[in-house]
Design brief:
homodimer; alpha/beta; six-stranded parallel sheet; 15 helices; 17 strands
Chain lengths: 433, 433
Amino acid sequence: MQTVGVGLLGLGTVGSGVARLLLEHGDRIARRTGLRLELRRVVVRDVRKERGVVLPSRLLASDVSAVAQDPGVQVAVELWGGVGPARRAILELIDAGKDVVTANKALLAEHGPELFDRAHRAGRALAFEAAVAGGIPIISAISQGLAANQILSISGILNGTSNYILTAMAETGETYAAALRRAQELGYAESDPSLDVDGTDAAHKLAILAQLGFGCRVTTADIARQGIDRLDAADVRYAGELGYAIKLLATAKLCDGSVELRVAPTLVRHRSPLAEVRGAYNAVQVIGDAVGDTLFYGRGAGQMPTASAVVGDIIDTALGRAGITFRTLANWIEAQGTPRIQPSSEVHGRYYLRFLAEDRPGVLGQIARILGEHRISISSVIQHEAEEDHEGAPVPLVIMSHNAIEAATLGALCDIDRLGSVRPPSVCLRVEG
Amino acid sequence: MQTVGVGLLGLGTVGSGVARLLLEHGDRIARRTGLRLELRRVVVRDVRKERGVVLPSRLLASDVSAVAQDPGVQVAVELWGGVGPARRAILELIDAGKDVVTANKALLAEHGPELFDRAHRAGRALAFEAAVAGGIPIISAISQGLAANQILSISGILNGTSNYILTAMAETGETYAAALRRAQELGYAESDPSLDVDGTDAAHKLAILAQLGFGCRVTTADIARQGIDRLDAADVRYAGELGYAIKLLATAKLCDGSVELRVAPTLVRHRSPLAEVRGAYNAVQVIGDAVGDTLFYGRGAGQMPTASAVVGDIIDTALGRAGITFRTLANWIEAQGTPRIQPSSEVHGRYYLRFLAEDRPGVLGQIARILGEHRISISSVIQHEAEEDHEGAPVPLVIMSHNAIEAATLGALCDIDRLGSVRPPSVCLRVEG
């Protein structure tokens, strides 16, 4: 049986999971793949530290060159995370002739084109199934399974922390702050949750998916993003009354030859597949011109789900499949170049607008007039009871628009917020479906 | 650019879709894959018949040898359906050195081992993504993306017709017969729907998935199956009241080293991902020991979704990926051999039982006593009002069991049906989750 040497960079949560799969389930993987995956070297910062997995100490090393210079290693796995050192390590590994597997979404979102080019020129494979949506094989679905399609849109719940918080807000009515605290207590959110809740993490993953789906170079900087950290519990409740869940959606959509890219809290109709994704799960909806709408669902993070994707990539790389996939993909992206990102002046959709307006005659008329001036037509209006219990307290006014230009909608909001009878800032959320 | 010759057997619904993708979107596929897929030959029964796709008449042929003997064809696509002639054609194509793509689930479920062996010995690839769940890339997810996992269970809604009918029964309360008629009017069911509604079609697909998931030879004959054609609207309603949807689930599950295989109407808890699959959609839940639970959802049939999977397979085969996948899979299945199918005496689970019992003292006691004698413990009981509006009319009695041996449950049902106070046949449905 053929033996394939594996070198591992990093022995944190996911790294320990990968080591466990390779060491404890090596026989099973060998039966299934015909390959003996041999863990030859693990690069860690401190070789003396205690770890969650028992490794022979001869495997531990403190420098990338231990992997890069080991002729017995064919596949190197980068699980350090972060950008600078990981980037340098991967370039060194590629230059040393290794195929590389990585779960590093931030790195790919920032430096994907450079790493793709380098690996492609060197004739090496770069595999990154674990970088998006944990164990869900969404990278291979888009780049292989749906290859016969023109992808029309990719829309995903890509951050489990945010989805856990949004689910809690919807099901218990609690505030963002309270739901975040609970998520932290339960280990679903880190003590500094910024990158999860401000949309950055989802934008990293979307940049990767958009490159695969549309064959073009996209980095995080191309993606308009808005997090859930300023979301008001009242809007979650009003959306629910209107028949919608609010989800942090990461969307890449083909519109008139341009690609619309965004990460934002979005209203999604109840009972649609994405609206039903609860808790820390991830899901990605992919629409292709031939296949129609598909959905891929599972755990988007965690030790073993992510390790499942990493080891899947090691197998794919060792069998030679990942090399074919990467070569094909890199050629396509090279030929397609940079896409036209849809400018915000062209972005359009339906919007949920919520104003806090004084409860007196004429205010609704003023708001409706300004919306009309910006050519935003109203689909439905709900005026809620005042939240504060005194006369003259502002009342929440929720307006759903028909299809409208986003820039005009934001312009109208700006004008409305200048009315003396409205308490700014008003809220504007995208509606899908 | 490399050109790959494609030969097509069959130009029905799916065949026309495949031809359209190859002819109308050849440039797009070439940009994406670096391959020019050239449709060289289409074998049809009547070369003069009008078709949904315009083909140069020089492409049409009436005999498989036109494809088998064309040295310019590398990939042959079998879309005839049916078993006998398709089997002979595929064997001829393999012997002539062609890689083969097929969407023929019945053929693979009946003769999979023979076709696998022949292709494997000849060093050819056999690809069949389109045979299960239309455009959803579930075959590649199980055989590649989740390859690092021990698959624990595969549970799918694999027949769109049945799911359409069950959804209609649940949402409108109509009978099976009425829902079937509507499905037929709308084109979701054929005029003879037997294979769809009696579980045979789902069993074909399950046989294929079980082979991939557990690496063993399974044919349709190994699968206990029950359709939806005798399902009573009342049971759909009572299940709904208890918080469950009834779905035609195809399940392959690892239990104590054996594989439990079944297709049956099954109660699935509301708001779980499978329960939320409505209409003609398909979905497959795969649970792996590392990845946890995943779900793959989309259109399970129809011209273009199926053509999407077929052309995906043609691309995979032409790029050489399908060859690697098939070789790996065939080796694994050859080594694993035939699994131990769990005998019905060992199958256990929770069950929904519904009796029509005379509304008089002691009847519930008799039923409960018999269940107790068979060691079936009761989780909940609901006695409904009589459906018929006269005194002494039998009342429906719904009992949910705790975990119980299926054979014992059926034995108890048999004894209960012999009671003078019960109107047979009583109903027993499996409960999942």
